From TrEMBL:
Residues 3-52 form the CsbD-like domain. PANTHER family: UPF0337 PROTEIN YJBJ. Belongs to the UPF0337 (CsbD) family. InterPro entries: CsbD, UPF0337_stress_rsp, YjbJ_sf. This is CsbD-like domain-containing protein. It comes from Streptococcus lutetiensis 033. Gene3D superfamilies: YjbJ (1.10.1470.10).
Length: 67
Protein backbone atom coordinates (compact mmCIF):
# COMPACT_ATOMS: atom_id res chain seq x y z
CA UNK A 1 0.00 0.00 0.00
CA UNK A 2 1.45 3.28 -1.08
CA UNK A 3 1.62 6.09 1.43
CA UNK A 4 1.92 8.51 -1.48
CA UNK A 5 -1.37 7.32 -2.99
CA UNK A 6 -3.12 7.53 0.39
CA UNK A 7 -1.84 11.10 0.67
CA UNK A 8 -3.07 11.90 -2.85
CA UNK A 9 -6.48 10.43 -2.02
CA UNK A 10 -6.70 12.63 1.07
CA UNK A 11 -5.59 15.65 -0.94
CA UNK A 12 -8.28 14.90 -3.52
CA UNK A 13 -10.89 14.58 -0.80
CA UNK A 14 -9.91 17.96 0.64
CA UNK A 15 -9.91 19.57 -2.79
CA UNK A 16 -13.31 18.08 -3.55
CA UNK A 17 -14.63 19.37 -0.21
CA UNK A 18 -13.30 22.87 -0.83
CA UNK A 19 -14.98 22.82 -4.22
CA UNK A 20 -18.29 21.85 -2.65
CA UNK A 21 -18.06 24.50 0.07
CA UNK A 22 -17.09 27.25 -2.37
CA UNK A 23 -19.51 26.01 -5.03
CA UNK A 24 -16.57 25.66 -7.43
CA UNK A 25 -17.62 22.72 -9.60
CA UNK A 26 -14.26 22.59 -11.42
CA UNK A 27 -12.28 22.21 -8.18
CA UNK A 28 -14.81 19.71 -6.87
CA UNK A 29 -14.51 17.57 -10.00
CA UNK A 30 -10.70 17.83 -10.02
CA UNK A 31 -10.60 16.64 -6.41
CA UNK A 32 -12.92 13.73 -7.14
CA UNK A 33 -10.81 12.77 -10.16
CA UNK A 34 -7.59 12.91 -8.11
CA UNK A 35 -9.15 10.56 -5.56
CA UNK A 36 -10.16 8.07 -8.23
CA UNK A 37 -6.80 8.15 -10.01
CA UNK A 38 -4.94 7.63 -6.73
CA UNK A 39 -7.21 4.74 -5.74
CA UNK A 40 -6.69 3.06 -9.12
CA UNK A 41 -2.92 3.43 -8.75
CA UNK A 42 -3.09 1.99 -5.25
CA UNK A 43 -5.13 -1.02 -6.41
CA UNK A 44 -2.73 -1.57 -9.32
CA UNK A 45 0.26 -1.49 -6.95
CA UNK A 46 -1.45 -3.98 -4.62
CA UNK A 47 -2.21 -6.28 -7.55
CA UNK A 48 1.37 -6.08 -8.77
CA UNK A 49 2.66 -6.95 -5.30
CA UNK A 50 0.25 -9.89 -5.09
CA UNK A 51 1.39 -11.23 -8.46
CA UNK A 52 5.04 -10.82 -7.53
CA UNK A 53 4.39 -12.62 -4.24
CA UNK A 54 2.66 -15.45 -6.10
CA UNK A 55 5.56 -15.76 -8.51
CA UNK A 56 8.03 -15.93 -5.61
CA UNK A 57 5.88 -18.59 -3.97
CA UNK A 58 5.91 -20.70 -7.14
CA UNK A 59 9.68 -20.26 -7.48
CA UNK A 60 10.17 -21.40 -3.89
CA UNK A 61 7.96 -24.45 -4.49
CA UNK A 62 9.94 -25.37 -7.60
CA UNK A 63 13.25 -24.99 -5.76
CA UNK A 64 11.93 -27.13 -2.93
CA UNK A 65 10.81 -29.84 -5.37
CA UNK A 66 14.21 -29.82 -7.11
CA UNK A 67 15.99 -30.92 -3.91
Amino acid sequence: MSVEEKFNQAKGTIKEGVGKVTDDKKTEKEGAAEKVVSKVKEVAEDAKEAVEGGIEGVKNMVKKDDK
